[in-house]
Each structure stands twice: as C-alpha cells, then as structure tokens.
What does this fold into?
Amino acid sequence: MPLALYNTLTRRKESFVPIDPADVRMYVCGPTVYDRAHIGNARPVVVFDVLYRLLKRLYPRVVYVRNITDVDDKITARAAAGGRSIDAITGETIRFFHEDVETLNALSPDVEPRATLHIAEMIRMIERLMEQGHAYGAAGHVLFSVASAPDYGVLSGRSREEMIAGARVEVAPYKQDPADFVLWKPSPPDLPGWDSPWGRGRPGWHIECSAMAHLYLGNSFDIHGGGQDLIFPHHENERAQSVCTHGGPFVRYWLHNGWLMVEGEKMSKSLGNVITVRQLLEQGVAGETIRLVLLATHYHQPLDWTEAGVRQAKGTLDRFYTALRAVADVPAQAVEATEVMGALCDDLNTPRALAALHETATALNKAVHRNDKARLKGELLDGTAVLGLLAQTPEAWFRGGTDSTAIEILIARRTAAREGRDFAEADRIRDALRQKGIILEDSATGTLWRRT
RNA sequence: GGCCGGGUGGCAGAGUGGUGAUGCAGAGGACUGCAAAUCCUUGGACGUCGGUUCAAUUCCGGCCCCGGCCUCCA
It folds into this structure.
C-alpha cells in the first residue's frame, strides 16, 4: 500500500519513496531530560511510534533513532536549583521517561543516543564546518555562518531578512551576521564542559542532532520528525549544519506534529496547566487512554487536551474491549485491516483509522456466524495493533488491579436472589457494587462485571 | 510587525466540486424482572462577505476570529 506523508519542506503531501527500501531510516527529536514528560512530550512519542509501526509493516527493515538531550542549560539550572548533580537529574529523568513511554505502549527506538556520549562526533563536525568556511570562531564561541548556507530558510519558509527584521532577541556582538548561531560555547568551571580545540566548552543545541543522525543514519536519510515548534530554529539550523558538512541532501521528508493545548489554553508553566503523564496515571487514567486521546486528532492539527476528551477515549476503548470480550472464545483470523492501513498510509490519518475500527467493532457486535466473528476479530486486532492499541486482554482492561473474590461472592448472592425472584435484594447488591465502581452486566450465560 | 496553520452539527473529529464520515451526547424502539451491554431508527454542520462554476462546506480573494513560530519550548 503506497504511503503518503505531508512534507514540511515542500508543504505538500507527497508519496513516500525511501532512499533504500531495504533500509528505511527515521530520526525523531527526543526529550531534554530535566523534568517528567508532559502530554506535549508524549504526543510526538505516540505519533511517531505509529509511523514506526506502520513503516515496519511496509518495509523489511526500519531504523528509528530518537535522541536524548542530556546537556542543556535547563538541566544545569535544575541541578543548581535543587542542589543535585546533573547526572543524578538526567539519569532519573531518563528512567522516568522510559517508564512513562512504556505505559503509552510506545515501542523502543532502535537507537536512543545521548548527547553527552557523542561530544567527539560533534567536535569533528564543527571542525569540518570550519574547514569548509561554514563556521568561525569568535570570543571563545564557534558560530555557524548562515550566509554560507545556500538555501537557508527553505524548511521554515522564511528569508534571512525576515528573521533579522523580526528578531526580538539582542544580537550578540561577536556574531558576523545577526542570524548566525552557536555551534560551541565556552563553559566556566562550574558548568558542564568538555575539552575541545576551542577550549573547555559545551555544544550548541542543534549540533547534537546533526552529529548523531549522521552517525546512526548516514549523510542522508528518509524521515525526520518532531514538534512543530522545532521547525525554527532547531530543524532549520540542524539542516543547514548537516547539508553544509556533507554536501548533498540531508532529510527527504520532514514531519511535524501540531501543538497541544489544555482546555482551550496554551499549555505552559506560567499558566500552571502543564499535565504530566505521571499525573494522569496517578489520577487513574490508563496509559492506553492517554495514547488514544493523542491519536484521536490528526497529528498535524492542534490538539486540545480536555477532560471530556479523556472520557471519550476511555469510552471508545471500553467499546472496543467489549466487542473483543464477547468473542473471547473465537480465535482471531489473520487478516489485514485494509481500511485502517489505507487511512494511516494517507498521511497517518488516525481519526479515519479509528472511524474504520468503530465500524469493524459494530460489525463484530452484530456478527452471528463464527467465521464472520473470527474474521472481524482479526481485523479489529490487526487495525488496533498498528495503532498500538488493544494491547491487553479485555479481562485486564476491565478488571485489572481489582480484587475479584469479594465481587464474585456478591454476584453469586445476587444470582441466587434473582433465581428466587427477590429482585429487591438483587438490585440492592447491584447498587452497592455500583457505589464501588463495579458495573454488572447480566447475560444469558451469566453475569459479567467490570470497573467503571 | 513578519511568517505559518486553522475555523465543520450539543461535543470530539475526518472528508469531499454534485448522493451530508465516525464516535459520544439527545430522541424513539428491540432485548432485559429492572438495568448494563448490544442492535435498529432518528434530528442536527460546514466563521463571514464576495468571485469562479450548471453546481461550493469543498477552488479563488477580502474580512473577522483562534492558535503557533520569529535563536535554544515537543
């Protein structure tokens, strides 16, 4: 099935043609590890996880690299404020990040390189840029010369003049050109630093991605992803560095996910409405529910995170798991969810894929013949698998973490009451369980229960 | 100020030059002791003003509103 992706570089949806179909390569900007992952961090993780799963179905080999930025002024500031070492903070935050990402059912990337372990590669790249006249030293810094990059600005769609005219930040006096940016900056003894030809210092923000992408994916690769806010300056600068270092094309398809809002407002520290994955989990929102909320809006659109949206995602998963539970005794047939694949191959249209899954669920609920059930069950499971959903059993989804013994005893008592036509007692037991968040469902074959 | 994206029914959210996705919520019905779940039926939309067209929610332009970026925020 042909895949089409919206390419930020051309501002068009294009058919995806890999450089080497036997070795598809993707790089996604990962977290800066100084704090717990919030839902804005979770969005690209989940979105590009779906793309990764899709690519793995379409191509025999996919290499997915997602970096970890573990040197950054925000980390340094956090360390200074909390009186903790940088290593303690980054180590803990990486552990937390992995925990959170696992609850979101995101697959691990093939490579997850840390910036601090690739300083040598960065230095080498900066040296090459200097040799080629794309970079210069000034006041202990090394700066990238934007004027030397022929097509600088094509990714973000802005001219150098516009950027300089619109700049709100004072231009450092040592820059030859106001648009030039830092490749390497000096570090005083109290800040993290590495020895380099330009003295003890630390890398600028963009060079780590250029260096690590080059190391693991080569001069040029297929897909580069990240949040929309990274288009400028991060990806524009990263692209300029890489193109100037290696000559030819860098990335074929640039993909950017939209911004996330909370209850209609921008999510920001100043508004105090930042929601972390951890907070949601502690409130009892399942990781799978979080994942579905993030996939219920097309990745390119802004996503408004709301309580209502969380409830709706939970309801959708209840519906899917209910359909699955009803056919627990029917083995799934191995079929491809072609509607879902078609939707995802159309620029990762997850809402359309979910609509198709709803229709499959309805058909499954209606099916009477065993072979229809087997086929539709297979279709539902295949489609949700690409989306990374329905990864658990209905049993675990509906009852996970609940002590069932007491509930089973009450259900047995209620069944006895019903058999004796004592509906007042039966309803009393049902209401008592409902108070505890347990919903009963009577059927011809017995009484089922689930948590709300 | 410059650049970019968006405005779809009560809500969420796709899509399309001409038969109005999908889900939730609402209404009615089937099933049930009553529920729950499930199934069936059903009302309801394309910010605004113009233009192109036989025909526009869909293409073009103006306007209004919302969001984002503009040197280190995913």
In short: The radius of gyration of chain A is 26 Å. Chain A has a mean pLDDT of 91. DSSP finds 16 helices and 15 strands in chain A. Residues 39-58 of chain A form the longest helix (20 residues).
